[in-house]
Specification:
The complex is a heterodimer of chains A (270) and B (539). Chain A has nine helices and eleven strands. Chain A is α/β, with parallel strands linked by helices and 270 residues long. Chain A has one domain: P-loop containing nucleotide triphosphate hydrolases (Rossmann fold, 3-Layer(aba) Sandwich). Classes of the chains: A alpha/beta (270), B mainly alpha (539).
Chain lengths: 270, 539
């Protein structure tokens, strides 16, 4: 892995009037890592992703993505891909037209762009339906087209908001395999999802956001191990613990120096 | 009944939330009240004259009643058919509704809701006219018979309209040809509708239609209305009119239920770019390649991509551009005069130039960010710079609008009293205005964007420009186009020439220069503002 973090934030905050969406977020995600970003609805996950992708300006703090400050959109965007929760597609276009349109906007050279599209379509089993209008697509097909669109330019950092939402098991597996392949190529994945087994399987590090604050962070196994004081625990148990009102009942002492190290986890008061 | 009640409540709430519609309704209500008072007075006098036998030709009273009955029936059926095609036949939440109640109940609810809606508009005037007529005729029974006739016309006319509407909707979902060419068919119908008024054909179409309708059973409702007072009103026909309602209503309801079931449970045929068959795919690919190819030849790839995308979206969902056609009604009067007199006025040439430029700007560029919808993040993060994005939109609008407007204005100018040079100048102004209007529109649309969809029809929502953008854009464009276009009108040019002691040609050229400066300046400012806003855009 490269020494410079792919994503690095310091005191990143976003407030809307009197409401705090994200509060002093400090992250350091190395290149080639999969970062699972968890949190209940309204925790500030999407706002965080929008700040990191330059779509929203932070109220305070700084962030660098792919080595570039998020204040410099023109330098950040060539390196990132983003799949929002609602796939950004024009319903009036066919799938191929949509992908060609995005390739055109990015001025990707031909015929390499067409080959890249065809390869991704084959991979996501979309080739047969790509001539149909997107308005006629199922939720899963739209999601797959959105993923292909986000991958077109081979981004170094990929932000995925609920990428497996609406996908059938086969397609969800393709997404998981694709994420694994991308990390093998040193791409960094920032993955926000409610489907915890996906995070459990793929993420190198998990961060849990609640009320805009990072309340827990660490490797999935380390998080689970630390919460196993009252029996075997799943990532779901950990999630419910750290985001619930009794988040820290029975939780291990976070000041214990034994927690420091490669598998170290951190917890903060929500 | 529950469906109808819920549907009416939704319509009422939707109406109460739309201030503009409320104001329009109030204005219509005001004029409507005047009309009702006049109609009631007329009905009173007619009733009085009929009873006193003072009408010159009593036979014509019955004939008039028959004509009125047929016209009302046809009018209701036509309006309801159109409403059914565009709104009522498409349910909100079809799946949930049809798995909760039978399609028979829903179909009946659709008709009932429409009936009560019609009653809200027609009920009070009908009662007023019936009572006034009865007073004039001195016959209480007349009031009941007139009301019975109007109620029967409303019921059967409405049901016939709903049935026709459902039949047409079935055609649109079952015929591949209609599904594929739906947009073109709507455009042809709209142009034909507009053309009928412009050329004065409308009257020559409706007159024979009414003449035929007078001989149909629907005209018998006229006999029913006058049965108590007019001696020459046929009692047999009046009886048949009642029979027509009694037998026709259940028959039409049965037909409606059948057609509704067929429609709502149908597997619709897909439009061209939707069937996925290899033939369709190749057709679509060819069209797409052609569109992209045209723009690729004149602009860098990112700009051409934006232009091609905008063009494809517009051609596949033209309903989003329907607002551009609304001001075309302003052309109806002058066009109609031109057809009738066989002479094109200079005023019409100027009007064509202004409308063409206005439409060019409004069609593709008056809501640049809002029109992107959910795709905004992908567009903003694509690396496209602001100038490329805006240039793509401008290219799409101007590539179509400028040549069409320029050509139409030149042709009209040559047919008008304007000289050849004057015509060429107005055409040049029109082309310049098109480009300037597109630049102006993109700036105004960026300053006053609209992201939420507006209801175009009940079943179709689309993101259209904001009212503020409309008003600002129209006003600035109009002000900018005034000098260049008015200076080409001979009376204006001569007047200004006399005052300024210069030739008419000089006035024309000066006006042209002024408009070019104004439109060009506004367009350039709009372009720059929109490009910068795109680059700095955040959610």
């Amino acid at each position: 892995m490269a020494s410079e973090p792919a994503i690095e934030t310091s005191g990143l905050s976003k407030r809307y009037g009197g409401t705090t969406a994200v509060e002093s977020l400090d992250l350091s995600i190395p290149s080639g890592a999969v970062y699972g970003f968890l949190g209940p609805n309204g925790a500030g996950k999407t706002t965080t992703m929008e700040m990191l992708t330059t779509l929203t300006r932070p109220t305070a703090g700084t962030a660098r993505v792919a080595g570039e400050s998020i204040d410099r959109r023109e330098r950040v965007v060539p390196a990132i891909g983003y799949l929002p929760e609602e796939p950004p597609l024009f319903e009036e276009l066919t799938g191929r037209e949509q992908l060609s349109y995005i390739a055109g906007l990015r001025d990707l050279p031909e015929p390499a762009a067409t080959k890249r599209i065809d390869d991704l379509l084959a991979r996501f089993d979309l080739a047969e339906d790509i001539g149909k209008r997107i308005g006629a697509y199922s939720r899963g097909m739209k999601q797959k087209t959105g993923i292909v669109q986000a991958l077109l330019h081979e981004p170094r950092v990929l932000f995925l908001d609920e990428p497996t939402s609406g996908l059938d098991p086969r397609a969800a597996r393709v997404v998981r395999e694709t994420i694994a392949d991308l990390t093998a190529d040193e791409a960094t994945i920032f993955l926000s999802t409610h489907i915890l087994p996906v995070v459990d399987e793929l993420a190198d590090t998990v961060g849990v956001l609640a009320d805009g604050e990072l309340v827990a962070e660490g490797a999935p196994e380390a998080l689970k191990r630390r919460a196993e004081s009252d029996g075997e625990r799943t990532l779901e148990d950990v999630f419910l613990d750290v985001t619930g009102e009794d988040a820290y009942a029975g939780a291990p002492d976070t000041t214990n120096p034994e927690n420091e190290g490669p598998d170290a986890t951190r917890e903060r008061s929500a | 009944m529950l469906y109808a009640r819920t549907d009416l409540r939704r319509k009422r709430r939707s109406l109460s939330e739309n201030t503009l519609q409320l104001v329009a309704l109030a204005v219509v209500g005001l004029f409507g009240a005047v009309f009702v008072v006049a109609a009631s007075f007329g009905a009173y006098l007619a009733g009085e004259a009929l009873t006193a036998g003072s009408l010159d030709a009593p036979r014509s009273a019955t004939s008039g009643a028959r004509s009125a009955a047929a016209a009302l029936w046809l009018g209701i059926a036509a309006v309801v058919a159109l409403r059914t095609v565009t709104q009522n036949a498409t349910l909100d939440g079809t799946g949930g509704l049809l798995t909760t109640v039978s399609h028979r109940d829903v179909a009946a609810g659709v008709a009932l809701s429409e009936f009560f809606g019609l009653l809200a508009y027609l009920g009070l005037p009908a009662v007023a006219v019936a009572v006034a007529f009865a007073f004039g005729a001195g016959s209480a029974a007349s009031a009941l018979l007139v009301l019975l006739a109007i109620g029967s016309i409303a019921a059967t006319g409405l049901l016939a309209g709903v049935v026709v509407g459902f039949a047409v909707r079935n055609l649109t979902v079952r015929s591949a040809f209609v599904a594929r060419h739906r947009a073109a068919i709507w455009i042809v119908l709209f142009v034909a509708y507009l053309g009928a008024f412009v050329t004065g054909v409308a009257e020559s179409v409706t007159a024979p239609l009414l003449s035929v309708a007078r001989g149909l059973p629907i005209a018998w409702y006229g006999d029913l209305a006058l049965a108590a007072v007019a001696g020459n009103a046929s009692a047999v026909r009046a009886g048949f009119a009642v029979g027509l309602t009694v037998l026709g209503t259940p028959l039409l309801v049965a037909l409606l239920v059948r057609l509704a079931g067929v429609l709502w449970y149908a597997d619709p045929v897909a439009p061209a770019a939707g069937s996925g068959s290899s033939a369709d795919r190749s057709t679509v690919d060819r069209r797409t390649a052609l569109t992209g190819g045209v723009f690729d030849r004149v602009a860098p790839r990112p700009v051409a991509s934006v232009a091609a995308k905008s063009w494809l979206r517009a051609t596949r969902a033209p309903i989003k551009l329907v607002f551009v056609a609304y001001p075309a009604f302003l052309l109806v009067g002058p066009l109609s005069d031109a057809v009738e007199t066989g002479a094109v006025s200079a005023y019409l040439v100027v009007l064509l130039a202004v409308y063409g430029a206005w439409a060019t700007g409004a069609a593709f560029t008056l809501n640049p960010l809002g029109d992107e919808g959910a795709v905004v993040p992908a567009t903003v993060l694509s690396g496209l710079d602001g100038r490329q994005f805006v240039a793509g939109l401008l290219l799409c609008g101007a590539a179509v609008g400028a040549p069409v407007t320029g050509g139409a204005v030149l042709l009209a100018g040559l047919l008008s009293p304007l000289s050849a040079l004057g015509s060429a100048l107005v055409a040049a102004v029109a082309v310049a205005l098109c480009v300037g209007a597109a630049g102006l529109a993109v700036g105004v649309g960026t300053a006053f964007p609209r992201f939420e969809a507006a209801r175009i029809t009940r079943s179709r929502r689309a993101v259209v420009p904001s009212l503020t953008a409309f008003a600002t854009y129209s006003l600035v464009l109009l002000v900018g186009s005034v000098p260049g276009l008015l200076a080409q009108l001979p009376p204006v040019a001569e007047f200004v020439g006399r005052i300024a002691d210069v030739s008419v040609l000089t006035v024309g050229l000066a006006g042209l220069a002024a408009t070019l400066v104004l439109a060009g300046g506004a367009g350039w400012l709009g372009f720059r503002y929109a490009a910068r806003s795109f680059e700095e855009y955040t959610l």
